[in-house]
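for the recovery benchmark. tokens below, seq after
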């Protein structure tokens, strides 16, 4: 398995959460400051480390590994003002009738 997508998603999640340095996320999540470097060198992360990162960012393991994009949509949707969320839901309702 190629873990490049996971590293890209971690970078995106750091930016979305105002974390300027990925190493900060690695340290705070408990995976170790060299996590990204080790992955780039070909190391495979343990399941425990993947779970720790998913928990830290409050996303699913599937999202983190690039297996789905649902978490990103839901995270962004939840940050919208209520009026915008209602507008989107109304649009979805209308489109689902076709």
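predicted aa per position
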């Amino acid at each position: 398995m190629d873990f490049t997508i996971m590293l890209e998603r971690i970078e995106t999640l750091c930016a979305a959460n105002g974390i300027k340095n990925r190493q900060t996320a690695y340290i705070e999540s408990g995976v170790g400051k060299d996590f990204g470097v080790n992955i780039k060198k070909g190391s495979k992360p343990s399941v425990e480390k993947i779970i720790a990162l998913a928990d830290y960012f409050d996303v699913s393991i599937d999202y983190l590994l690039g297996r789905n994009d649902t978490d990103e949509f839901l995270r962004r949707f939840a940050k919208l003002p209520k009026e915008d969320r209602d507008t989107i839901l109304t649009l979805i309702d209308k489109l689902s009738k076709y």
